[in-house]
């Protein structure tokens, strides 16, 4: 078979001539030659395999820039790249599905009458064994729990995390169940704006920012906002579940199948954040949960999660009944493991009975 005109090649590849012209302009699929007289693009049959690959990748929804990368790889490496892309798509779909479920419930007039639950809570924050200052900030109230981990070095993290917590503090006064996620989203935007203003008024704060994980209760509904690498867990019926997803480089590599959890623990860039509050308008994750009597929630900074094994966290939450004793035990575990970072924990027990606070 000789050279194919763009029309014939388009039919064979099941692409439109318009798509082929675009791929030519982007360098994805150049014609074998261009007729000097007519200007027609001419393709070789051997180019069909690449054209079909491009077509399938487009059907997957892969961006053109990433398709260019896949097409430049050998088959085994290209397969790994496609697998990594699809793993990220599935992760994004899960996050959007949770938000869609919330919106469907709200728009369909879902029942807002829920059992009124209360929480019995305690918090504890410690400088650790290595750092010169504590850059974590924490808040625990009857409706709001929040942990923020500031960064930026030279003491800049502390005012950043404090500003984030201060922006969320008014939520503890109470929010209607149907407004939980909206209220949290607005509070995060206020926190981000506060960081932007801090940087604008004090150039020495340039580069400072904070992570944030917070929970807000109304009735039996729990709104969760998360950005960065603080974490939230729930102990339910004896099982411990992590209900946040780290916004870190190593977590993204795990999601894409490029790194194992064991490899991530010793990765030189394991603390590199992909998302955080820095006054730049980055979006946070928002989720809605249905809390149950008997649930025990843990919010913690990465000073706990990076050095204390999950099993030890589970055992502490499952066996230490008093929330105050539990948070202090968790902080002790982090310090016993070397305390390389500030460590902050909040433990909250959900009950349908009136209970004393911390």
From TrEMBL:
Segment forming the signal sequence: none
GO molecular function: DNA binding; DNA-binding transcription factor activity
Keywords, alphabetical: DNA-binding
Classification via PROSITE patterns: HTH_MERR_1, HTH_MERR_2, PPM_2
Annotated ranges, domain HTH merR-type: 3-73
Cited InterPro entries: DNA-bd_dom_put_sf, MerR-type_HTH_dom, MerR_fam, PPM-type-like_dom_sf, PPM-type_phosphatase-like_dom
One Pfam family recorded for the sequence: PP2C_2
All copies of domain PPM-type phosphatase, residue ranges: 120-350
Entry superkingdom: Bacteria
PANTHER family assigned to the protein according to its UniProt record, in alphabetical order: MERR FAMILY REGULATORY PROTEIN, REDOX-CYCLING DRUG-SENSING TRANSCRIPTIONAL ACTIVATOR SOXR
Protein name listed in UniProt: Protein phosphatase
Organism whose genome encodes this protein: Actinoallomurus bryophytorum
């Amino acid at each position: 078979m000789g050279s194919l005109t763009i029309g014939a090649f388009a039919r064979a590849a099941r692409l439109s001539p318009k798509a082929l012209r675009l791929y030519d302009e982007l360098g994805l699929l150049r014609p074998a030659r261009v007729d000097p007289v007519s200007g027609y693009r001419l393709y070789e049959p051997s180019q069909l395999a690449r054209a079909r690959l491009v077509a399938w990748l487009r059907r997957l929804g892969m961006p053109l820039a990433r398709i260019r990368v896949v097409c430049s790889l050998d088959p085994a490496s290209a397969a790994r790249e496609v697998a990594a892309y699809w793993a990220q798509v599935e992760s994004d779909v899960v996050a959007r599905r949770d938000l869609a479920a919330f919106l469907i419930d709200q728009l369909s007039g879902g029942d807002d009458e829920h059992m009124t639950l209360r929480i019995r809570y305690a918090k504890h924050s410690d400088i650790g064994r290595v750092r010169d200052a504590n850059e974590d900030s924490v808040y625990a109230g009857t409706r709001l729990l929040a942990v923020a981990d500031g960064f930026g070095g030279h003491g800049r993290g502390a005012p950043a995390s404090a500003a984030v917590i201060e922006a969320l503090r008014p939520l503890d006064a109470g929010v209607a169940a149907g407004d939980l996620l909206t209220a949290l989203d607005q509070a995060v935007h206020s926190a981000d704006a506060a960081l932007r203003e801090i940087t604008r008024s004090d150039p020495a704060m340039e580069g400072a920012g904070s992570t944030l994980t917070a929970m807000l209760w109304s009735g039996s509904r729990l709104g969760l906002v998360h950005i960065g690498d603080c974490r939230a867990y729930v102990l339910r019926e004896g099982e411990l579940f992590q209900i946040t997803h780290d916004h870190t480089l190593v977590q993204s590599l795990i999601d894409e199948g490029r790194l194992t959890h064991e490899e991530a623990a010793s990765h030189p860039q394991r603390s590199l954040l992909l998302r955080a509050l820095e006054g730049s308008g980055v979006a946070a994750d928002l989720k809605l949960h249905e809390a149950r009597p008997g649930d025990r929630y843990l919010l913690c900074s990465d000073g706990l999660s990076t050095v204390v094994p999950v099993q030890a966290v589970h055992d502490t939450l499952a066996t230490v009944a008093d929330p105050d004793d539990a948070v202090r035990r968790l902080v002790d575990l982090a310090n016993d493991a070397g305390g390389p970072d500030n460590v902050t924990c909040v433990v909250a027990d959900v009950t349908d009975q009136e209970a004393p606070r911390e």
